[in-house]
C-alpha cells in the first residue's frame, strides 16, 4: 500500500515556524493560508459525515449514516471547528443542533449545519442530518413516508469563502480545533506511517505558530 505524504518545502516550513503569518497580513489572509497549507493533510483523515441515525431495543439495533460526496465519491476533511451541541425538551430527550467546519481534501471550507433529536429511551430513534439528501439516506422512503414527512426541517451544507469564514468564525477556535484534529489523526496512523506522523506533528507546530 502506498500513501502519498505531503512534503512542504523546507523554506516554507522554516518561514511558517519562525514567523508564521506576517503581521501586516489581514485575518482573511491568515485564514486563506491555513486552508491552503493544511488541505493536503485532509486526504489522510476521515470522511465527512452528514447524517447519523440509530435506534436500539433489547432485540436489535438499526444504524444508518450518510457522508458528503463530490462527483459520487466520499470526501475527506480536517475538522476545523466543532459546535455540534444538543439541548433538552425534558430529562430524557431533546433537539440536536449546531455547526461543524471542515477543510476538505480539495482545499475548500465546508460548513455543516445540523438538525436532529436525541433520546435516552430504548426503542426511540435518535438522529441528525444536514441537507435533504442526507435526510433521505437515514430515513428510507422520505419524502412520501408519512412518519417522516412530519419532519420537514432541514439543516444545510455550505461551501464558504475565506471572507465568510473570517466573518462567521473565530481564528483562535479554528486553530485549536485543527491542532486537536491533527493530534488525533496522527495517533490513528499505523506505525509504518511514521513519516506522515512526523508531518502531522510538524503541522501542529505550524498551527501553534500561526496562533502567536
What does this structure look like?
38% of the residues lie in helices and 27% in strands. With 212 residues, the protein is an alpha+beta fold. It folds into 2 domains: 10-45 and 162-211, no CATH class; 49-160, no CATH class. Residues 16-24 and 143-150 have low confidence and may be disordered.
Summary?
With 212 residues, this protein is of the alpha+beta class. It is 38% helix and 27% strand. The chain folds into 2 domains: 10-45 and 162-211, no CATH class; 49-160, no CATH class.
Q: Which short descriptors sum up this protein?
A:
212 residues; alpha+beta; 2 domains; six-stranded antiparallel β-sheet; four-stranded antiparallel β-sheet
The N- and C-terminal alpha carbons lie at a distance of 38 Å
Biggest sheet, spatial arrangement of strands: 2-1-11-10-7-6
The total beta strand count reads 12
What is the overall shape? globular
The total count of helices amounts to 7
H/E topology pattern? HHEEEEEEEEEEEHHEHHH
The residue fraction in helices comes out at 25-40%
Biggest pleated sheet: 6 strands, antiparallel
Question: Strands, helices and their partners?
Answer:
Blueprint: H1 10-19, H2 27-42, E1 49-56, E2 61-67, E3 69-70, E4 73-74, E5 77-82, E6 85-86, E7 93-97, E8 99-104, E9 109-113, E10 115-119, E11 126-129, H3 132-138, H4 146-149, E12 156-160, H5 162-168, H6 171-188, H7 194-211
Antiparallel strand pairs: 1-2, 1-11, 3-4, 5-8, 6-7, 7-10, 8-9, 9-12, 10-11
